[in-house]
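Re: the 174-residue chain
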Amino acid sequence: MPTGSPCDTLLVVRPLLLTGPPASGKSTTARALAGSLPLAAVIDVDDIRQLVVAGHAAPWQGEAGRRQQRLGVENACDLAGRFVQAGIDVVVADVVTPATAQIYRSRQSDLLVVGLRISFAEAARRATLRPFHLSGEEFRMLHQEQAHLDLADHVIDVDDLDLVAQVAAVRRLW
């Protein structure tokens, strides 16, 4: 009977953070990429922030929203660190801001940040293909956050990429 865990023989690559505006494919790409690996986890930071049920505030809703956003990023970093320590590759999906980029960089020094750049028209088209929980104003505001893609180590233009091509482009950088 073998001893040790399956993690003992795997080479874990550095944690990966996918960022970009809504409908750029962060979560979908993260799941497809992780699903193609022998042992990998996906951390969708929106899911972590949604754990706050009573009193939930979106990141753009004042100090409470900023505090909850910070807590979500800190929890995502802690969780990512635990996965990496266990020998599990990890892909994080989040919309990064200057404040959250600082948290990610300080808590995950070997983190690779890949930005997914998408035009507003293509993002709006993709948004019609899935359930969506943002108002039109919130969608537009978050799309303008692409200005923060300069915080990424690499940026991929995804307008003309399908999921397979988008995953391949991210994999080449990771």
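The longest strand covers residues 112-117.
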